[in-house]
Give the backbone structure.
Amino acid sequence: MYALTPRCHLSSLPRFSPACRVVTTSRPPPLPPPPAVSVATTSSSQFGGPADPSSLRSTWPHRAWVATGSATVIASLVKSVSVAAACGAAVEPLLGAVLGYLLADLGTGVYHWAIDNYGGPSTPVFGAQIEGFQGHHKYPYTITRREFANNLHALARAVTFTVPPIQFLISGDGSMAAAAHAFVGVCAGCIMLSQQFHAWAHEKKGRLPPAVAALQEAGVLVSRAEHAAHHRPPYNSNYCIVSGACNRALDESRVFEAMEMVVFFRFGVRPRSWSEPASERKEQTARIAGKD
Ligand SMILES: [Zn+2]
Ligand SMILES: [Zn+2]
């Protein structure tokens, strides 16, 4: 048995990677002093940094995307209810909704793992989200001060473009069609709202609406305690941000570690969590001026 980098735990894999080094107990070289926090002119601060409260406000384009995304979700749910009512189905649409809820949790976990570990600000399509999540690791509390549409617009835009074609492909007027519409509506709705659930997981308990606190307590929404583990060393667990229901299975099965090894051995790309110093993930103490 040997120890690899903090993310290399798969003992069955061959020991020839130049990237996997034996962990020693010698003291690491001192880290350079952290750079001074700049004031709100970089794009990263727009997502995760502590400055410039104006970057946290919703704009009309943000609201428009959330409105169109919500419209597609509501259309799916209404269609499910109308088809179910017409054919007398109840169990199938409920099962579809539960599956959609679970898949949304799993999907946010996989997506969160991917953008936490791969790509960068210049990555096409996903660059802004990647940069945003890097900033979030340094300034997690900032998300609680982000306005609703500002926080949700990127996922709402994705929902706007993906849900209508899927709905178009669902045909029929029986119980399975009702289940499919319920699945799509609940899954897309939970994915779109996942950043709000994520924000609530960072909020102080006393500031949460009582219903949200109760849902977190019941495990319906990802709890503050569960998500806090994602922001603690070794920063490689609890990626799911809808309910957190899939976190334990994903983390205990080490599926993300296995996927990282596959990516590394197949493409030579190391995940950020293997090499990023803890200082890059450690929460900074700076707060938004006048907001805390
Ligand atoms: Zn993360
Ligand atoms: Zn977080």
Q: What stands out?
A: Residues 1-29, 31-48, 285-292 have pLDDT under 50 and may be disordered. Residues 136, 140, 198, 202, 227, 230-231 surround zinc ion (ligand 2) (CB under 6 Å). The CA atoms of residues 103 and 187 lie 7 Å apart.
